[in-house]
Design a protein that fits this description.
46% strand, mainly beta, Nucleoside Triphosphate Pyrophosphohydrolase, 14% helix
Length: 151
Amino acid sequence: MRLRTAAKAIVIHEGRLLVIRKADGGDTFYTLPGGGQKPGETLVDALRREVAEETGAEVEPVRLRCIREYIGRNHEFADKHADVHEVDFCFDCRLVREPHADRRTHQDSAQVGVQWLDLDRLDTYPLWPRVLLRVMGPEPWTGPVYLGDVN
C-alpha cells in the first residue's frame, strides 16, 4: 500500500461548485478538481497545477476547509481500492480565471468533462466522496477539519 497526498479545490462561484465529471464502466460521477502532490511541491502549488491541468481554470487557495483520509479496504469500493491510502487536503479557493477546455493540459484518466453543479442541489448528484455533502456550502465549514477515514 502506498500513501498519496492530494490537494483538492472547493471552488464555489455564483452558487455553483466546480467539479470534474468522470465515467467508469458506464457510471458517471463527480469529484473535486485537484490531485496528487509531487515530491518537493507544496500542497498549494500542487493544487494550482492540478486545477489548471484538469479544468483550465486558475484558482487562489483561501483556506483549508477539511482533511479527508481514505483507506480503500475500509469502504464500499474495497475490491477496486484495496491498496489505496490517500489523504486529501480540501481548500476553499477563489476563482481567478474561468475554466476553459483550450487551457486544459492533463485530464484525469476517467475524466470526461468539467461541470458546475448547483449548490442547492448537490445531494442529487453522484458527488464523491459523499462526505463532501456534509462540509459543502456557500458558508465556511465550522466543523472539525480532520474528517477521518471517510468516503
